[in-house]
Amino acid sequence: MNVDRTIKLKMDLSEYDKETLKLTMSMSNHVFNEIARYGFENHTCSMVSIHHATYYDIRGRYPELPCSILQGIRDVACEALKGVEHKKLPKSKQFSAIRYNKRVCNINLLDQTVTLASIKGRVKATFPIPEYYKQYLVWEIRTSTLGYNKQQDTFYLHVTIRKPSPEPTRDNEILGIDRGIVNIAVTSSNDFFRSKSIKNVRAKYAYLRAKLQSKGTRSAKKLLRKISRKEERFVTWVNHNISKEIAAMPYGVLAIEDLTSIRVQSRMKGVKFTKKLNNWSFYQIEQFLRYKAEAFGKSVITIDPCYTSQKCSKCGHIYKGNRKGNSFHCVKCGFQIHADLNAARNIAILGKSGDSRRTVTSPYIACDYAEACKGIDAEHSYNAPHLSAG
Ligand SMILES: [Zn+2]
Predict the structure, then answer these.
(1) Domain residues of the chain, as ranges?
(2) Could you say which of 134, 177, 276, 283 is the most buried, measured as most Cβ atoms within 10 Å of its Cβ?
(3) DSSP code, position 119
(4) Along the chain (390 residues), what's the average pLDDT of each consecutive run of 10 residues?
(5) How far is the CA of 321 from the centre of ligand 1 (A)?
């Protein structure tokens, strides 16, 4: 098993090299369309037959196109033909992204340099590596795709990197995680994750929003959207940090509640917007946990959230009145505990009994949280004090 990630590098290029790459790109896409048309008209997506039929002809007509790029184009065209099952003709635009195989694209992540084959020989470029990509420096580089953003007149290299996933943690200890508002996450290992600042920041935004909403002008609406995005980025950043810490804990399996639960919603009796935001944030924590757990070779399971807040984690007695706000007090055995911690322990217990598991970790769909974290306001300092509870 391997873990694959794609990182996006912004390339610094001279104007001359940009022009060269643009010409290379448009020629490549033109050739792609020719090859695809051949395959489409002849009902074939076989690399061998397409190669024999088109290679020398295209080499003759486009001698400046490096043969390694041409081979890459042919491979992508064959995959595209296969993908659409000959139902329609695959087409590329002038500046559609082009794939570079390892041989034609030498990336040195440590030196932050890359050389790319082009119609005018090798083009050399540098790229800054953002801080959050530094962990990937030692990963194996797979394929790269060159993309061009017309509006920004900027080239990006999307690099797929790989590392073998670590052996799954041997101990199958299960960590239960309860998600909430005040405590963003509470784990069955007695760890409370909350952000001191998140409440203040949210209050600040709520105030600003209310003020702007009452104004109702166009510029106020524009500002409103900007503020909402800023708030989202902040919550994303906090979620990222919390899930990182939880995923690193010494447990092989992370158990969480199934998000489709109604209980999670009913617990959040607040302003409509907060409710919405929290739902989104709950879901995000789960995504981040899956993503990070995968890198540790751990799995995430979801459990049926029924009664996790009403059930006593010590004796198993279920009674609605056991829980009062933040505290849990079992009427049967007298056990007392923080309500969220009780829920987290129940989640861990349910995770152990296989029956209650709803789904096993589904393959994670790459989520570029780093991208989402970009431009976060430096004034928010994340603070997640660990409070031990008994
Ligand atoms: Zn009890």
Answers:
(1) 2-164, 174-373
(2) 177
(3) B
(4) 83 95 96 95 92 93 92 92 87 91 83 91 90 79 91 93 66 84 86 75 79 83 84 86 91 85 46 53 88 87 86 92 88 91 93 57 36 33 34
(5) 12
